[in-house]
Amino acid sequence: MTDKAVPLVELRKVGKSFPDPKPLTILQGVDLTIGAGETMAVVGSSGSGKTTLLHLLGALDRPSSGQVLYQGEDLFSRPADRLAHFRNRQIGFVFQFHHLLPEFSARENIMLPGFIAGEQPRAVERRAAELLEQIGLTARAEHRVGELSGGEQQRVAIARALIMEPKLLLADEPTGNLDPQTGEAIFELLCRLNRSLGLAMVMVTHNYQLAARLNRVLRLEDGALREIDPEQLAQLASIAP
């Protein structure tokens, strides 16, 4: 049983820099806690390090300094095989540009992480069918990627991120490449899945109106992460994205 007093994820004085070809500091001394089931938006200018932050939270990249803790354990104290197992089972990733495999159907793309993990095919197929129903694409299950609209492709990418029933969903501009109506539908889907599945969600976005509808909004600027107060957030959200 998970101790509810322990955050799902915690960053302690995390820094990230790249030494070559020219020294570049992206993050410095970042502290952050994410509770189970919490939703959070991260905003900031292009190049401020938002995607880097997601990669650290999802154990896709290692910090240059500090610790990334998952339920109290330092993630990067784990050997590479355990870290890969953690990413596959505990973290779901949704990217702006879906990264679906075009030669596969929607259903096959969704099932892929389960097969990579060595799960029983029947269990993976059953979970994929449930997710297809949740995202409203049961009738499109056997369609290949090129036969799906941009919004449908993003829904498939979300279902693929959830097939292993992760506790944390990381979404990098999931609506940024979609028209406003489709983007709103994708955002509503993510929020509905957060409520029904109880998973925590961190979303990188440039859209303050969407960001304001999540539990917390933080701005990444000059390598530091700061929470935006409600009054300032209301002002920013009143401006069209």
TrEMBL record:
Q: Name one GO cellular component term.
A: membrane protein complex
Spell out the molecular function terms from Gene Ontology: ATP binding; ATP hydrolysis activity; transmembrane transporter activity
> Would you tell me the protein name for this molecule?
ABC transporter related protein
Stated family: Belongs to the ABC transporter superfamily. Macrolide exporter (TC 3.A.1.122) family.
Species of provenance: Desulfurivibrio alkaliphilus (strain DSM 19089 / UNIQEM U267 / AHT2)
Pfam families listed in its UniProt record:
ABC_tran (PF00005)
The residues covered by the ABC transporter domain are 9-241
Question: Keywords on this record?
Answer: ATP-binding, Nucleotide-binding, Transport
Q: Which PANTHER family match?
A: IMPORT ATP-BINDING PROTEIN (PTHR24220), LIPOPROTEIN-RELEASING SYSTEM ATP-BINDING PROTEIN LOLD (PTHR24220:SF689)
